[in-house]
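pls design
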């Protein structure tokens, strides 16, 4: 539901393999504020917008345990506004947060606001 010409691509994250054998290639981009998303309802149930500060707040983190192929698998997940963000989406967000956390302080305006 995002027009490609409305996105300023900022970079690419590592690929993420899903448990259902898909490979997700992830890009980080910026779109205008209050963007009028038009998701395909066959693919997207809901668009959830959350501030970076929520992702970077340890209070929104959970360890979610699922049974995958008969094995217990614990993964990081996030909670926000009554939603649980888990699976490949949470893995992508975790990698993104790790990159943000590794930025030098002088380049990381978001770190200054958290202190």
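designed seq:
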């Amino acid at each position: 539901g995002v027009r490609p010409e409305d996105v300023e691509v900022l970079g690419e994250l590592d690929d993420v393999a899903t448990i259902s054998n898909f490979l997700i290639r992830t890009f980080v981009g910026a779109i205008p504020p209050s963007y009028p998303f038009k998701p395909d309802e066959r693919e997207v149930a809901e668009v959830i917008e959350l501030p970076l500060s929520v992702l970077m707040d340890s209070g929104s983190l959970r360890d979610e345990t699922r049974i995958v192929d008969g094995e217990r698998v614990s993964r990081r997940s996030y909670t926000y506004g009554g939603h649980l963000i888990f699976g490949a989406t949470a893995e992508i967000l975790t990698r993104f947060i790790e990159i943000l956390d590794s930025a030098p302080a002088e380049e990381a305006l978001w770190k200054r606001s958290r202190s």
